[in-house]
Amino acid sequence: MTKLDTVDPRILSVGRTIFGIVIASVSAGFSAAEEKLEPIELNDIRGMRYCEFLLIFDDRVDIYNTSASAGCPEELWKAIDIEELADAHGASKAQLNGPHFWAMDDQTVGLGDTKTFSGIDARYAATLPLSAVGSGQGADPYKPYTAAKLQTMVFKAGSPVYELVDSEGNTYILNAYGAKVIDGDPANLASQLKPAEGWSFQVNIPSEDLTIKGSTDTPVHMVGDDMHQYYTLTGTEAK
Questions:
Q1: In which domain, by residue range, is 149 found?
Q2: What is the Cα–Cα distance from 124 to 101, expressed in whole angstroms?
Q3: 239 in any annotated domain
């Protein structure tokens, strides 16, 4: 297993971080068998910045993430032409996802081969269904979907977790947040989000470490909010 320790925040500020849209996940019905995935351990990443590239094909969306690469320089990120990007990789369309910032403390994810996107290196992280891109900026808000995530997330005791709760009391925990969050503090989502009917946002501080595990054999439920940030269901197993 490869382990990446904490990087100086001043260095991380020039990069971006699915993983915002569900890193290292393989949706039910898709397979990562053709990708040789390496488990990567990321430690002390709460607040770490990353970006993602989405390559959209006729039957799937492939996601590449910079979290275990050399970062995502702002000048290169802003200069990307998504039509040229799609053509270069044989995709129907392409989308950029980020910058985002991890909301957990540690995670282990399976990452595959590296591709270069307009000068930025990123590693294969996920294959999702077309529904995951929704109307064009990510999954449609407050409409859960299922993914078989090759990912373990750890939220440490005493640190806040940010939650969406549906009308039945199911709780989804924020994986990563975007640059539009006021003061970079996800607690401010309480005033920024406009949850769908029956949904609410809350902040919780667990007394014990909270771990969410996913694999190709144990699918999990996910949902996006109206700011295109992503959450994973906790407390029950996906069916």
A1: 2-234
A2: 18
A3: no
Helix (H, G, I), strand (E, B) or coil at 11: helix
Tell me the pLDDT of the chain (239 aa) as tens digits. 544 443 333 222 222 233 444 443 333 344 443 467 888 999 999 998 899 999 999 999 999 999 998 888 889 999 999 999 999 999 999 999 888 899 999 999 889 999 999 999 999 988 887 766 655 555 689 999 887 767 899 999 999 999 999 999 999 999 999 999 999 999 999 999 999 999 999 999 999 999 998 777 777 889 999 998 999 999 754 34
Q: H-helix or E-strand containing 190?
A: helix 189-192
**Is residue 136 in a domain?**
yes
Q: pTM value?
A: 0.77
E strands, the chain, in order: 2-4, 25-26, 38-42, 49-56, 61-65, 93-102, 106-111, 114-117, 120-128, 145-149, 151-155, 161-165, 171-178, 200-204, 210-214, 220-224, 230-234
Domain count, the chain: 1
Write out the two tokens for 98: 């980020």
In a domain, 201, yes or no: yes
Which residues touch 209 (CB under 8 Å, ≥6 apart)? Answer: 154, 155, 156, 157
- Determine contact, residues 77/141, Cβ cutoff 8 Å: no
